[in-house]
């Protein structure tokens, strides 16, 4: 086995490769054409952030079986090409867990005890120390809220418990009532969670589901005045400008921020002049130990995969066979699209994901189909890389059950190969089900969303609108889109008649991405019960 190390690694990692007995070459600074010419002669490639495993580099991969990224992100690796070529891509996200968690706790201490301001005061050389200006708050006995209960969030929680803090958790994608052997209670409603906190710390991915989770309304109306805000996750999770205003008006007591929506932030950023603020330049994983650990773990992952077939830190499909024959591949595509649609419908968390399949072809693919759908469903909502290799493990760790049921016949009124994917939030909460199939033209079709029947190819920019079935609503929706300059390309309308009145569902395709302002305008209409946007892949 031969390994190409295309970026500088810590000596500890290279020593591991030597002890493994595998042949390896260190070639740093290869240009794209040089790397493309070289990779086919190696079984594995190890990179950091310098070398770029582009689509061109991976176009003719030869014997290349795996790529390990010594670090968290994989922006320098073309995942689509790697997956299509059957190359396993791994990263070392866990290597920086401790360093990032420690940084969040360091920010918490520095903020609570006003250490940066006190340090600056002493260094200014005053004739007399103004100690009362820097009186802080004790953390023991205070209530810490951890938003996001993945690796980093749980690591922070364990250490906060040791500090004698009371710890609560919020994570819609943890369905159990508590974590860490019952020591951390999970609160399902964010506003209820927020109202109980003295300190809040964020450890969630970015994206639409977490953008401005702490917004102006909550900062000014839901928080305790002594709240300390710690953001060591993603800049967009907190509305930075509302946070600055809340600090200046005394709505909260302090903020420690390591990440910003734009980095570095603008020179006149309002947090620079807000009171009791601690700011650091995205240092969460910046420790000597973390940087060594990512090199060591990348080498360990490659050795484990090449020698034992063991997969660590996978971020793509890897060993799962996705090169399905032409009559089966569209079902995999359908499953992904159903998962994306369910992702925007399921805001209350997930307890169970159930796949029901009938027909001749779909049941043969159930394991792959369920995993593909679950990846798209869960990926926007959790802070760890999700793929068909690790999705079942991640789901199990959050108390989410994945169920497969082969049906002897299609649901009533339908024929052929039918996929039905249902998501239940548990505890009597919401549930959603989408049925779909693939016609002879090879295109995926959505046949039902909950109780609404339809027939549409799910693709591109789409908006799901649920409304009271009453005169004028269709016209209102059309004019709202028109006023926003967003053209409706296609639309299906269905209604579900209930004892207390009919409710309609519109599935709308648009020629351009719907804006937040458009969705807000729709939701403000009295007859509109829901308006959600989702972006799906274009038609293949």
Write down how many β-strands occur, each being a DSSP E stretch of 2 or more residues. 23
Overall 3D geometry? globular
Widest sheet: strand order?
8-9-7-6-10-11-12-13
- Main sheet overview: 8 strands, mixed
Helical fraction equals 25-40%
How far apart are the termini?
37 Å
What does the average pLDDT come to? Answer: 93
Describe this structure in words.
With 540 residues, the protein is an alpha/beta fold. 30% of the residues lie in helices and 23% in strands. An eight-stranded mixed β-sheet has the order 8-9-7-6-10-11-12-13. Helix 3 links the parallel strand 3 and strand 4. The longest helix is centred in the middle third of the chain and has 21 residues. The two termini are 37 Å apart.
Quick recap:
The protein contains 16 helices and 23 strands.
